[in-house]
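Record format v2
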Amino acid sequence: MAAPLVIKVKPQDNVAIAVHDLAKGVEVLPGVVTNEPIPQAHKTALTDIAEGEAIVRYGVVLGYAKKDIKKGDWINEHMVKLPKSPSLDDMPYGKNIVPMEELPEPPVKTWMGYRNKEGYAGTKNMLGIMTSVQCVAGVARVAVERIRRELLPKYPNVDDVVAITHPYGCGVAINATMAYIPIRSLQNILRHPNFGGEIMVLGLGCEKLTLDKLLPPEDITPENCLIIQDCHGHDEMMQKILDMAETKLKRLNERKREELPLSDLLIGMQCGGSDAFSGLTANPSAGYAADMLVRGGGTVMFSEVTEVRDGVHLIAERCVNAEVRDRLAAEMKWYDDYLEAGGVDRDANPAPGNKKGGLANIVEKAMGSIAKSGTAPIVEVIGAGERPTKHGMIYDATPASDIVCGPSQIAAGIGLQVFMTGRGTPYGLEVAPVIKVCSRNEMKENWFDMIDISAGGVATGDQTIEEVGTEIFNFIIDVASGRKKPYSDQYGFHNDMCIFNPAPIT
Ligand code: CA
């Protein structure tokens, strides 16, 4: 069978996606001939669509035609009128609960991780040094460089030392209603599973984010915390930081990887720089891997509020009870109001690259984005910077921004993130590995040594979602177990910890 020229997802769809750049006059499906060139990943009309009629992909109304569209025309983002987003009131829940035994069986049931006294296990063994305020960020970075150079070689079981610097801590309305989000995020990042329960905080001394806001009383000790305004000059300050670090490195060096069940593994899913293939190839393949992990007892989170908002009813149907559905609706409502206060709506989300990649609007982007959550029941919904309490598929309501979603999922405790991309991004996180999965083979050919896995074979018919999904699952296990390093870690491409702060800056 010849490779398809276009991909139609559902029988009721009246558009299909070009697998490659298509010329004018190509018969893409019986009786459908292109009237003009169609760029790769963009939509062509499979029927005449009159002005005001629905444009349907994934069996879902992406929007309404702004003018008459002829069969074989190119449909770009300027031709689609955005529909209303689904109502959050009384969304049915539990209508689409896939039984556990129908999820795909994982090829392995264990991995090699660092067990922790409480919570999920680590995928790495690291010392994390957090600042309580941005003023100390430079000190933390210089100290980390010295610790890496002077101390780390003595402790071979410790993978790395990281400075967790961030823009929060002072010059902020620390008692504002929403300040709990950045504060909770920082509290939880300090307790990330890769840090093995060791806490190290560098404060300035006059900031608003005082140690008691960051730590419980029993953890505020000279062994864990240093206020640099209390130090007598540069050399004493640096020596104190190095001494603190060494005490902790000695303990971390005792940690060893051990064989653990998948129930000790928590991972996150994200996408960025998506294109119209993301929802056909990379995201459903990642969703298949997610289903395998959940079947094996593992925990998977997906996020990005604006990118699921238009498919929220599909997520609600997978919620296991009314409480989970209600939390989902509440998180979405909060974000609707947050966007409205800024004078925008969810369609402010798609980037120029998304549109160049054929995504007409946020509805189309959302339908692709949700595919990375697989089909497993949703057992819990949490908010930005919060930690999950359940095992299974979890929705973590974070912003969709790559660089904000990442730290938010780190706060939740992910051991690694699987990141799907259509256009390509070097994005990475220092605290946990990020695995890149691209949606098109052309992307992988261009960034052959920066993208870990290509799901492009699903579009060309050379691979199935099950095959790529299993490849992603195996790669997750290898990276979590320290046997493989994704490219972002090989090169040290790590983004800043941009924690979500919806509260006012003063
Ligand atoms: Ca994103």
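The chain has a mean pLDDT of 96.
The pocket of calcium ion is lined by residues 270-272, 304, 400, 402, 405 (CB under 6 Å).
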